[in-house]
């Protein structure tokens, strides 16, 4: 269990004790309750008003007892919310998702749930009813039909570079260009896996495009032997290759 300044403060408040002081003082005050009943503790440890009506051995008013119970209940509720934080967050997300559904999507999901409930009630060990052959979700059950249609999971995309591997849905197809299978295929072809080759699934098309890119790079590439210029004493301009040949022959 996590113990910190705020936890100590909550625990002391639940018992009606003072919550001020340093962390060590709070801890010592709370530790007193381990071996000493509350009614035996010195009044100086209690918060103002917690035992205000307890004088000359007279018990505190019922209202003080109610305040103590309320504080204790609040501390328990805070702890329970901390333990169930993930569940509460998932529940909120699920509600937001359902509120965003259209009427047709709600009906499709309801029909899907009814179909699954009927098949499960007939026989728990029976194979999951999936006549539409929908993909399986994280819970081991077919995903809702509306979700299947939304992501276009009925569309098959084959990639020859990936060894004719099939990708279902446009999203999975677009994502696969950055995944290991496609990268490995491009590496085997000796082609860099850049954005230029997105949407290219044919080996022949990839090779053809890579050849064009190499040719374009070769045309635009600076060639010093032909493009670097030299000038002789008379002001004649030559490229590097010609100038070097003439100089070697002693003509310049």
| Count, helices | 11
Strand content: 5-15%
Gyration radius from CA atoms, angstroms: 39 Å
Q: Strand order, biggest sheet?
A: 1-2
Q: Summarize the main sheet.
A: 2 strands, antiparallel
Task: Provide the helix percentage.
Answer: 40-55%
Instruction: Point out poorly predicted stretches.
Output: 52-62
Give the overall form.
elongated
- Amino- and carboxy-terminal Cα gap: 91 Å
Organism: Medicago truncatula (Barrel medic)
Protein name: Matrin-type domain-containing protein
Subcellular location: Nucleus
Main location: nucleus
Fold topology:
Layout: H1 5-14, H2 23-35, H3 62-83, H4 85-99, H5 103-122, H6 145-150, E1 156-159, E2 165-168, H7 170-175, H8 180-189, H9 203-220, H10 224-227, E3 229-231, E4 237-239, H11 240-248
Antiparallel strand pairs: 1-2, 3-4
Organism: Medicago truncatula (Barrel medic)
GO molecular function: RNA binding; zinc ion binding
Keywords: Metal-binding, mRNA processing, mRNA splicing, Nucleus, Zinc, Zinc-finger
What is the structure about, briefly put?
The protein has helices spanning 5-14, 23-35, 62-83, 85-99, 103-122, 145-150, 170-175, 180-189, 203-220, 224-227, 240-248, and strands at 156-159, 165-168, 229-231, 237-239.
């Amino acid at each position: 269990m996590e113990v910190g300044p705020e936890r100590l403060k909550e625990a002391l408040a639940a018992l009606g004790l003072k919550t001020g002081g340093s962390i060590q003082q709070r801890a010592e005050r709370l530790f007193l309750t381990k071996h000493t009943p509350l009614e035996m503790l010195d009044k100086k440890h209690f918060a103002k008003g917690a035992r205000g009506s307890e004088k000359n051995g007279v018990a505190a008013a019922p209202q003080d007892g109610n305040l103590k119970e309320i504080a204790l209940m609040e501390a328990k509720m805070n702890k329970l919310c901390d333990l169930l934080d993930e569940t509460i967050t998932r529940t909120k997300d699920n509600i937001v998702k359902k509120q965003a559904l259209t009427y047709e999507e709600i009906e499709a999901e309801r029909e899907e749930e009814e179909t699954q409930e009927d098949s499960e009630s007939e026989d728990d060990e029976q194979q999951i009813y999936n006549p539409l052959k929908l993909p399986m979700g994280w819970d081991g059950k077919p995903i809702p039909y509306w979700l299947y249609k939304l992501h276009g999971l009925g569309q098959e995309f084959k990639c020859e570079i990936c060894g004719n591997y099939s990708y279902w849905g446009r999203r999975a197809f677009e994502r696969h260009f950055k995944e290991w299978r496609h990268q490995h295929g491009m590496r085997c072809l000796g082609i860099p896996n850049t954005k230029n080759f997105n949407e290219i699934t044919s080996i022949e098309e990839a090779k053809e495009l890579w050849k064009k890119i190499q040719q374009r790079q070769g045309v635009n590439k600076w060639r010093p032997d032909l493009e670097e210029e030299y000038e002789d004493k008379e002001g004649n301009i030559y490229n590097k290759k010609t100038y070097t040949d003439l100089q070697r022959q002693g003509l310049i």
